[in-house]
Structures are given as C-alpha cells and as structure tokens.
Design brief:
5-stranded mixed barrel; 8-stranded mixed beta sheet; alpha+beta; BirA Bifunctional Protein, domain 2; single chain; 485 residues
Length: 485
C-alpha cells in the first residue's frame, strides 16, 4: 500500500492537470441540488424529471473502460452515479483525474441499472473541492483511539454511529432549552473572562488582558453572575455554555466542558427537585424515544421516581463513620486505605468528597437524589438549620456518576462572607481549588437577593450517559489532547 505522501503527490499532479484544463477546483457556487435520501425515497417522481442535480463526496469509485460508477454521498445518504463516455463526451476525459474524497456536483437523468439500483446517469459534473489526502479505510488509519479524537473530522466521516452520537447531543441541548423556555426561563450570557473566578471548587486557567494589564481567569462556573441577575430583578435565568477547570483529565473530566446552570427566584429545594426530575425524565424520553437506556451493560430506568438518599447515610454505610463527627485522623486513615491522596493542603471536605466519589458514587446506577451534604462542601448553599453542619443541597447520580448539583442558594451576605473567609484559609494552606472572595458578589447580596434555588447539569456527562459512551472524550467533538510527538 502506497504511503500517504506518495498518494498526495499523485493527487497534486491530477489537480495541476485539471487546472491546466481551466477547471476551478474550489469554486464558490454550488448548483441547486437534491438530497440523496430524498431522491431514493421519491425515485419515481424524480425519474420523470429531465435533469436533476446532486452534490456530495465521492465515497466509491469503480472504472470500467468507457464507464465509471461512483458513490456520491451527502449528509442524508448516498446515490450511485454513472459516468459514461457516450453521455459525457469530452468531459469524460476529466474522470480519471477524480479521486475518492473529492466533492462534486453532478447533473443528469435518473435511471435504474440492470440490478435495479437507483442511479444518476451524468450529463455533466463540476468539481467542488479536490481532496489532496486519501480518506483512511475503516480498517486502516484510525485504529488508534487517540488518532480518532485528534482527527475527529475523519472519525465522523467514517463512522455513522459517531455522527449519530453528536446529533443526539444536539437534540439534548435543544430539548433542555425548550423545557426551560416552556417554564419562562430567560437565556442569558455571563462573562467567561472573570477578574475573580468563583462558583466552584476548582483551579482556574489564568490569562492577561494586555490593554488593562489585568490578570483574568477563564470561568470555572457562571453561578455568581447568574445570582447577581436575580438581584437585578430577573426571576428565572439560565445559561448553557462552556466552563473551564485546570484539573486532571479522565473518563469523566475534561478541562473545558459544557454545563447548564439555572437559577429560580422564590423556589425552594423541594420544588427544584420535582422540576429537575421532570426535566431530566422528559429530556431522556424526547431524545432517546424511551425511558430506559443501557449504560456500560447496566439497564437504567428514568420511568420510576428518583430515589431520595442521604449523603451521610451512604457515607456511613461504606466507611462505618459519620462524615460530620468523624475525626480528621480517622478520615485520613480511611482515605489512605482507599487510595485517596492526603496531605497538608487536602482539607477535611476534600477527603470526604473524594472518598464519596471513589467508593459510593459508582454504586448509584439508577437515578437518585443524594441530599444534605456536609456544609463544608457547600460554601454557596444554605444550611439545613441555624446550627446545622448539613447543606440544603442535592446531587443527581445515575450510571454511577454525578450528573447534576443543586442548592437552596445562600442569600445572607454576612454568612456568605464568613464562608469565603473560611475558603481563604484553605487557600493559604495550599488548597488551590478553594473559592475566592468575590467582593462584587457580596456587594450584590447586600442589595438583597430573593430566596432562590439553583441547579447545574453536567451536559457532557449527561450525553455520555444517554449515548452509552465509554468516556467523556467520545461526546466532545474536539476533546483536549496531548500534543502529538
């Protein structure tokens, strides 16, 4: 088999020969065309037309003396095309210069071959784009998973199931928007470049605005800006967009990711639970056409009411200690036995969170609400009671991973400042993921923010779950990759 550079050199010679014949290999205009699937579906009607035009990529090419058959493929499907010396005349001399991967517009008359296959008998054709590199065969060139992600355009071209996964992703996004708009939520856009990154326990990416000599950060979450909009008089707002976290990469984490966050004034956690369950159930049903999905070999049902589980009870069942009352030394000992990193900068809250994620979360296959996390894990949430160490918070788990997180939002500015002060202590101790004090947000709270519930959905994980993808990279068109050596 010839190497790519040899094949490319041959194609460049063909391109040069076509240019010498006056052929524009990359024209702007495409003639009005029909979709391949539409032609296949309504063959009888279109076969009565004198001429029709199709356009697409050559995905099959078979030359037989004075004739050539090619498969012309567009986004809807493919149609066989017949090039014959008799029908094309002089134009047939350009056929040998065509290659797999080239884009063409072909006009002609519909016929059926002796085998009964719908075929367009060409009367003329236009090169729309000359492909200078060969498309790898299904079994050659993309066996390496890393290469699939690195050359996603080829992965999409060769694998219909990959294209379908991203169509499903798009439908999930449309459905989520539709549900929120049905509930009169307003879609908004908040800053991605932020002077003070907040709203999540995460290390941010840093950049510099040269015009103002101002250090800025890519947002880790849109939460604080969205809550400032509640102060400004909006009652239902949402944002569907990218956030960025400078953290490790694995099958459920990518440095840039899509999340849906919405905030609902005058709503409490109980009402939010009811709505979020309906939203997720409806999204699954409308995009997957079923309420039952398969994920990693497990059957997951969204038709039943989500279970309600207490964080502390789940933790106790796994580790035989209460996460609220256990001593720091006990938690460190448990962490070491379970392979969870410890150290001076690893706070009690981080240990509890990592232990739960590593040991408890994988057991939560069926959709479930996990309620009332330790307050130390939830600096932006209300407490269950005045002196409680538990937060008015829930997470939604399914398929053994967290897909959503929600709070009864803390709107007491003095209490919020205390929480930020505590976070600042953790930062000074070396915890780079501790939240920063946002004075603009605290000032906004002092103007008064109504009671509200807030919700965040990890869209990428949700798509991963619904499409039975083995990793997050399978549902990101262009996931973050190490540079190729």
């Amino acid at each position: 088999m010839a190497d790519i550079q040899t094949v490319r050199a041959v194609r460049l010679r063909k391109a040069r020969a076509l240019r010498e014949l006056g052929v524009n290999l990359y024209p702007e205009h495409t003639p009005k065309r029909l979709a391949a699937a539409e032609i296949q579906k309504h063959f009888s009607a279109f076969s009565r037309s004198r001429q029709i035009t199709i356009a697409g990529r050559i995905t099959g090419l078979r030359v037989h003396g004075g004739a050539a058959f090619l498969d012309c493929t567009d986004a809807s499907g493919k149609l066989q095309v017949l090039f014959s010396r008799k029908a094309l005349g002089k134009a047939f001399t350009r056929v040998p210069a065509l290659d797999l991967g080239d884009f063409l517009a072909v006009r002609g008359k519909l016929i059926r071959t002796r085998r009964g296959e719908a075929t367009l008998e060409a009367r003329g054709f236009t090169v729309l784009a000359k492909a200078l590199r060969p498309i790898p065969a299904h079994w050659y060139g993309l066996r390496d998973v890393e290469e699939r992600f690195r050359r996603r355009e080829i992965d999409l071209l060769l694998n219909p199931e990959v294209r379908q996964r991203f169509r499903v992703r798009s439908e999930i996004l449309r459905t989520l928007r539709r549900i929120l708009e049905d509930e009169s939520f307003l879609e908004v856009e908040t800053p991605i470049l932020q002077a003070v990154p907040g709203g999540a326990h995460a290390e941010p990416f840093r950049t510099m605005l040269r015009a103002l000599k101002l250090p800025l950060y890519l947002r880790t979450a849109p939460e604080l800006y969205l809550k400032r909009l509640l102060v400004g008089g909006f009652e239902k707002v949402y944002e569907l967009g990218r956030s960025f976290r400078n953290e490790g990469m694995d099958h459920t984490h990518n440095p840039e990711f899509t999340e849906l966050e919405f905030y609902w004034a005058y709503q409490d956690l109980k009402g939010l639970m009811a709505f979020s369950e309906r939203m997720i159930r409806r999204t699954v049903r409308e995009t997957m056409r079923t309420s039952h999905i398969s994920f990693r070999g497990a059957q997951i049902s969204f038709s039943r009411k989500f279970r309600r589980l207490e964080f502390s009870s789940l933790f106790q069942n796994s580790f035989r200690v209460d996460p609220i009352t256990a001593s720091d030394s006990t938690l460190v000992s448990i962490a070491r036995r379970n392979g969870v990193p410890t150290g001076p900068s690893v706070t009690r809250a981080i240990l509890i969170d990592h232990l739960f994620k590593k040991t408890v979360a994988p057991t939560l296959l069926q959709p479930a609400f996990v309620l009332h996390h330790p307050l130390s894990l939830s600096p932006l949430a209300k407490a269950v009671g005045q002196n409680s160490q538990l937060a008015r918070r829930f997470q939604i788990f399914a398929g053994g991973m967290e897909v959503a997180n929600a709070y009864a939002e803390l709107n007491d500015p003095r209490e919020q400042r205390k929480r930020f002060v505590e976070e600042a202590k953790h930062r000074r101790s070396g915890n780079r993921e501790a939240q920063r004090t946002d004075e603009d947000f605290l000032t906004a709270l002092e103007y008064g923010m109504p009671p509200a519930a807030g919700f965040g959905l990890g869209v990428d994980r949700f798509v991963m779950l619904l499409t039975d993808a083995p990793s997050l990279r399978e549902v990101l068109l262009f996931p973050t990759m190490r540079p190729k050596k």
